[in-house]
Structures are given as structure tokens and as C-alpha cells.
Amino acid sequence: MANIIDMPKLSDTMTVGTLIKWLKKEGDAVQSGDILAEVETDKATMELESFFDGTLVKIFTPEGAQIAVGAPLCAIGEKGEKVDAPAAAKADGAKPAADAASTETEQKESHPEPEGETAPAPVAAPAATPTPVEPAEPAAASPAGRTKISPLARKLASINKLDPARLTGTGPHGRVVKADVLAAVADSSKLKSAPAAAGAPPAKSNTTFSGGTPARTGPIQEARTVAATNMRATIAKRLLEAKTQIPHFYLEIEVDAEPLLAVRADLNAAFEKEGVKLSVNDFILKASAEALRRVPGVNASWTGTGIQYHGAAHVSFAVAIEDGLITPVIRDTHTKSVFAISAEVKPLGKRAKEKKLKPDEFTGGTFCVSNLGMMGIERFSAIINPPNAAILAVGTTVTKPVVKNGAIVVGQTMVLTLSCDHRVVDGALGAQFLAAMKDLLEKPALLLV
Predict the structure, then answer these.
(1) Residues carrying an active site annotation
(2) Residue pair 313/294 in contact by the 8 Å Cβ criterion
(3) Cβ contacts of 325 within 8 Å, gap of 6 or more
């Protein structure tokens, strides 16, 4: 009897997953430990592993479909074995979650809600595995100017910078499907001429001149509504909860960055042949761990009924990715040198951008650092990442006049902003933490012992 592989729960907050790509096809022999597919969770792209030996006899879920946790994905059995789709996968009206989201979006566009009212929270549909074919039921006529296109086809069109209105649909009722997009990418002659509004005057140049100065007209991008990815939807939910349920307050301190920059430059020059290249953020992470050691009350979490104080400093750092951001964690940061931290940060950051982090690499942090200094931001306030009690926002280094030894000289400063959960961290405690950060960064030799 064939073994059914269901959508696993690959992160603590995961409720649905997107089947990105099948790495095996029906009829392939598989062994326990083989990677069957890539699955996008709300936090990263993970690998789906087989726990059985046999043959991949049936795939229930097409690429690009969103599937609820626990829904069937495929069957592993004996070669030639016939496997019927589980009852959930054959339920009438079952659709890929992405199609459902697209339909809901179109309904909202056709029937906008009255201004000032809040839409009710969407009700989750019963878990069901979508069939790999496009829906065959008659579809309502699309509003004028809107192209009927499947969510997967729309995503592929966006990636390849194709206008859906110029694609010829071969799906039911002229719907543009994945094959149509791939055909257009392979052969540009399959694109239709750009559509023009009925009765519209001949197209003119989008450049006009007034007094010899060119002026641009027209939209800056195609107006569109896209369904949120699993990661973006989770980020939206968690940030709303964090900002509305955590009583934030903010503290700010200015740090003399000259000593830090000088030590960093000296170390990078000394260890250049070994391939060492320390960043300012490496020192910030190390200083954060040391400051948590000095002021352990900040290394804590609100439990709902009390405060949990953590016995180790697991400092995470925010990494921007296409769908939002993720926070890889440096475990036991307080026990590691700035060189060891730097050696961990680089591969973690790379895997984060590739969405290849394992769950234990982005969970369990007790404090977070968000650094926008490399983007030229002088100061900002970050939203706390639950269950942490604080997050440190780091600005860029600014060259400006400062007073040293009673004289005005050119200096380099950096602004640190601490966002605190007032249920755990009071003003005085947060101030002590920032004072410790200032002391450590202005005496960077303390970070090397």
C-alpha cells in the first residue's frame, strides 16, 4: 500500500505552504532521505524529504499551488501501483489557494467596501489539495480591461516583465495559463499588439517639452493587485500584533564611532591575507551580547503572566529579502569573538537571501539588531520582534562637527535607537543598556578580550 506524504509543518507559525518546484517526477525511484520538492513556508524555502523507499507513483499537488498543512502532496509506493487521490483532494470545488486568493482579490476590486469600514477577517477554507488542471467551470465575464490569468501565470509574467494583456490565453474561456507565458518567453512573436482603448487618439510620445525642459507623463508602473506570499502575509500579521499589543517606547543615544572605525580598519588590514573583513555590524552584534551580559534585564520576554529571563544571549540580525525580512540568529553570541560572529554572519546572510535557512537558524533569538546604516539612514525606530523585549536600530555613521576636549572638531557619530517593551523593560533599564552599548563601542578594545 502506498504511503501518502502530506504538507509538513516546517515552522512554528506555518499554516499553509507553497509547492515551488518538484525535484522528482512520477515514476522516479526514491529512497528515504531523497529531496522530493521545494516548499515555501512563511519564513523560508525548505526541502521536502522522503521518509520512504519506493517509487513516486502519484503527485497530487501542482507546482505553484498553496496547500494547507496536513494536506496530501504525493504518494510513494511500488512501481506501477495505482493510487487514487485522497478524498480531500477530490472534493468538489477544490482550488489552489492562490486561485482562491486571486478570485477574492477580483471580487474586492469589483465590489469595493465602503470607505471607513473594515473588512471582516477571511475565513480559512477546508484543507484540500488542488488538482493540477485549470478550473473548467464557466467563469464570469471579466470586467472591461482586465485579463483573465491564473495566479501562477501572472507571477511568471511579472518575473519576465510581460504585460498579461498582450498574452493569448489558451485556457478555459481564454484564460492565460502557465504554458501561454512560457510560450511567449520563448517566442516573442506570440505577443499580441499592445491593446488600445476604443476611440482613443493615436499614441503620443510620453515626453513633452515646456521651455526646453523634458517632462515625463504616464504611470510609473503597471497598476495591479497581487496576492501576498506566505512570508509577506505572516510578516503583516506578526507586525500588526507586535505594534498593537506591545507597549513600545523608544530611547536614543549618540555614539562616537571614530574609535570603532579605527580598530575595524586596523584589524582588517592586519588580517587581510587571511581573508578577514569585519563589518561595523559584526561589532554591533558583539557589543549587543556584551551589553546584555551587563544589563541582563533586557535579555527577557513577556510570557503573558510574567517575565522570562534568558540564560544566554542569542542575538539575531535583520536581513532584507524579496518578500520582506528574516532574522537569522547567532547562538550564544556572548561566548563568541567578533571574528567568530563575522564568520557566522556571512553564510547566514547569504542563505537568508536565498531563502535556504533551516528553522533553527531563524528561531529562538532573544534580542534583535536592525541596521540600516549601510543604506544611509541616520536614525529610525524598529518594531519589536516577539517574543523579544527590545530591538536595536542602528543608523549610518555621520561626519559632523563635535566638541572634544573643549574644541570643535570634525567627528564621526552613530545613532542607536532602542525600542522597548514597557511590560518588561522600564526607561531606566533601557537607558542602562544603551549606556553599556556606548561604552563598549567607544572603547572597542573591550570587544576583543
Answers:
(1) 422
(2) no
(3) 235, 318, 319
DSSP 8-state code for residue 424: T
How many CA within 13 A on the CB side of residue 312? 11
Q: pLDDT truncated to tens, each residue of the chain (449 aa)?
A: 788 999 888 777 778 888 888 999 999 999 988 899 988 887 777 888 888 899 999 999 898 888 888 899 999 999 888 888 776 554 433 344 444 344 334 443 333 433 333 333 333 434 444 444 444 333 334 444 567 888 777 877 887 878 888 888 887 677 888 878 878 877 766 676 655 544 555 544 444 444 555 566 667 788 888 888 888 888 898 899 999 999 999 999 999 999 999 999 999 999 999 999 999 999 999 999 999 999 999 999 999 999 999 999 999 999 998 878 899 999 999 999 999 999 999 999 999 998 889 889 999 999 999 999 999 999 999 999 999 999 999 999 999 999 998 999 999 999 999 999 999 999 999 999 999 999 999 999 999 97
224-246: b (≥16 Cβ within 10 Å) or e:
eeebebbbebbbeeeeeebeeeb
Cβ neighbourhood burial of 206 (10 Å; 0-12, 13-18, 19+): exposed
Q: Is the peptide bond between 387 and the residue preceding it cis, with omega within 30 degrees of 0?
A: yes
CA atoms of 347 and 366, how far apart (whole Å): 21
Amino acid type, 148: K
Give Cα 267 distance to the centre of its chain. 33
Residue 406 CA, chain-centre distance (Å), reads: 48
∠ CA 433-439-442, nearest 5°, is: 135
Nearest Cα residue to 56 out of 72, 41, 75, 69: 75
Q: Of 365, 373, 370, give the one whose Cα is nearest residue 381.
A: 370
DSSP reduced 3-state for 107: helix
Do β-strands 16-22 and 35-40 pair in parallel, antiparallel, or remain unpaired?
antiparallel
Per residue, the 3-state secondary structure of 194-253, as one string, reads CCCCCCCCCCCCCEEEECCEEEECCCCCCCCCCCCCHHHHHHHHHHHHHHHHCCEEEEEE
> Cell match 533586557: residue?
298
Q: Is the dihedral of CA 40, 41, 43, 48 positive or negative?
A: negative
User: Could you tell me the domains of the chain?
Assistant: 3-90 (2.40.50.100), 143-190 (4.10.320.10), 247-447 (3.30.559.10)
Would the pTM of this model clear 0.85, i.e. be above it?
no
What residues pair up with 254 in beta bridges, in sequence order? 415
